[in-house]
Structure formats: structure tokens, C-alpha cells
Amino acid sequence: MRKGNLISIFFVGACFSTSLALSSPMSNVIMVAPDQIKWVDLPLIPGAQIAILEGKMDKKGPITARIKFAPNTKIAAHWHPGIERVTVLSGTFNYGMGDKLDEGKTTALGAGSLIVMQPKMHHFAWTKDETIVQLNVTGPWAIHYVNPADDPRKK
């Protein structure tokens, strides 16, 4: 059999397998419409709200959450224990790396932008307008401020 035919057979098989997975019972599917999203205050970041779409922040497993930042939110330098994937859904998320918030050392990321951060990477952010991001992580998720004095839970 020619190599091209083997690749075609593999591709068709992969598509068939994918279509079977997509037709699995609805009990294994999580669907959240925009009007079902429930926002609550996020004490870890003053002026921010969070909506947990999948998982529990303090439990092991996949987590999908959205964070809504009020205009002029500043997020001091911090880090997370696991890989963090952030997708900007609306607004502009000004993102930088380092041990101290420095607006001049950020990159403005608009809707559709993605950031993938490795564990314990020090970073900071700020917003000018309301901004919503989606967070995809494996729990448990935590935020650790580089400077403990910046932690709003201690104020």
C-alpha cells in the first residue's frame, strides 16, 4: 500500500473517531449559555468578578473560568502553581512579566489573544476599560503575590 493511501486511511479514521466522540451522551457535556453565567466578586483581585464554568478552583482537575475586570483594574505581580492559559474575550488586557507592576512594560492584548504561562512565572496586568478573560487551568488554582503586602486578602 502506498504511503499516501495510509495517510488518507489514518485521516478518515481520525475524523470518524472524532465524530463518535462528539455524539456522546449529553450527560458528559457541559454547555453554558451567556445568560447562564453567574458572576461573583473575586476577593483575590479588587474590582474583579469571576464565573466558574467548569470545575472547582480548590479541587484537582480541569477548570474553565472567566474573570471580568472593572475599568482601571491593576493586578500586582504574582504567580500561580500550575500552567495558566488566558484568552482575552473582550476589552484590552495589558500584560507584563516581572516582580513589580510596571504599566510601561506591558503588551496590550485585545480580544482573541492568548497567553500561556508556565508555573511560578511572575507577571502582572492592568486594564483601562472593562475586560473579560477566560482562564483554563488544572486545579487546584491559586494566586501568590510576589510582594505579600500587595495581597488584598491581607488588607
UniProtKB/TrEMBL annotation:
Gene3D superfamilies: Jelly Rolls. Pfam families: Cupin_7 (PF12973). Residues 1-21 form the signal peptide. Residues 30-132 form the ChrR-like cupin domain. InterPro entries: ChrR-like_cupin_dom (IPR025979), RmlC-like_jellyroll (IPR014710), RmlC_Cupin_sf (IPR011051). It comes from the Bacteria. Keywords: Signal. This is Cupin domain-containing protein. The lineage of its organism: Bacteria, Pseudomonadati, Pseudomonadota, Betaproteobacteria, Burkholderiales.
